[in-house]
């Protein structure tokens, strides 16, 4: 049995959870936060979530986990296209979403999680980075109807999980959200929400996010 360790407001946890659901693999979810404790680092050496346990072995880094699932369960739904160019596009979109949108947006995440104030320069810097990332992403996305083409792929797991979290986090700081300058993004997210597996990921995220926001006020 696969065990997924993570938390509902972690986009990387939700990316892996959506992949597991789409692949129809049985798994148990174990809610855990990140940690620098020695025992935790033995399972996830950067102290991050998510990590996966399969047959007593531990795997970390969400993209490595998705690639593992693809190889280890070849009879499940494929999340990477067989055409190398198409597969490269999937990986490019994941890289753009995570490196050039999620990582900059994290400068603001701390505020909601730790109740910190954010200096205006940080907000400005984040907005500039998000605008640059959004422009780059808009050059590669397809939204036809999925982000990398006409099939659901690993890029949808990453993009859906990340955009749903960023939107919640940055609304208090940056408005309008520069990510919605990506033509077709809102329609894409609305379409994704009609996917029962995406809705399964979104629901616990919304519950925890609401509770966090209440605590912060
Ligand atoms: N590159 C990692 C990123 C994972 C990540 O940043 N997880 C966050 C939660 S969404 C975390 O554990 N942060 C704690 C930390 O950075 O120490 C992946 O793809 O799994």
Automatic annotation (TrEMBL):
It comes from the Bacteria. Residues 83-217 form the GST C-terminal domain. Keywords: Transferase. GO terms for molecular function: transferase activity. GO terms for cellular component: cytoplasm. Signal peptide: none annotated. InterPro entries: Glutathione-S-Trfase_C-like, Glutathione-S-Trfase_C_sf, Glutathione_S-Trfase, Glutathione_S-Trfase_N, GST_C, GST_Omega/HSP26, Thioredoxin-like_sf. CDD domains: GST_N_family. Pfam families: GST_C_3, GST_N_3. Residues 1-77 form the GST N-terminal domain. This is Glutathione S-transferase family protein. It comes from Leptospira sarikeiensis. The lineage of its organism: Bacteria, Pseudomonadati, Spirochaetota, Spirochaetia, Leptospirales.
């Amino acid at each position: 049995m696969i065990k997924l360790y993570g938390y509902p407001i972690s986009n990387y946890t939700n990316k892996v959870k959506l992949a597991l659901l789409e692949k129809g693999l049985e798994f148990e979810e174990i809610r855990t936060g990140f940690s620098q404790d020695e025992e935790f680092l033995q399972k996830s050496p950067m102290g991050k979530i998510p990590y996966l346990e399969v047959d007593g072995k531990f795997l970390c880094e969400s993209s490595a986990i998705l690639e593992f699932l693809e190889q280890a369960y070849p009879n499940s739904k494929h999340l990477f296209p067989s055409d190398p160019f198409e597969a490269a596009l999937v990986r490019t979109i994941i890289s753009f979403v995570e490196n050039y949108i999620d990582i900059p947006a994290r400068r603001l995440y701390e505020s909601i999680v730790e109740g910190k104030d954010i200096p205006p320069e940080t907000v400005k810097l984040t907005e500039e980075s998000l605008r640059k990332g959004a422009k780059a992403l808009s050059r590669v996305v397809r939204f036809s109807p999925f982000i990398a083409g006409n099939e659901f792929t690993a890029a949808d797991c990453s993009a859906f999980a990340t955009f749903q979290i960023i939107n919640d986090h940055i609304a208090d700081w940056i408005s309008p959200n520069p990510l919605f300058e990506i033509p077709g993004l809102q329609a894409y997210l609305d379409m994704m929400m009609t996917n029962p597996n995406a809705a399964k990921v979104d629901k616990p995220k919304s519950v925890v996010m609401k509770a966090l926001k209440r605590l912060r006020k």
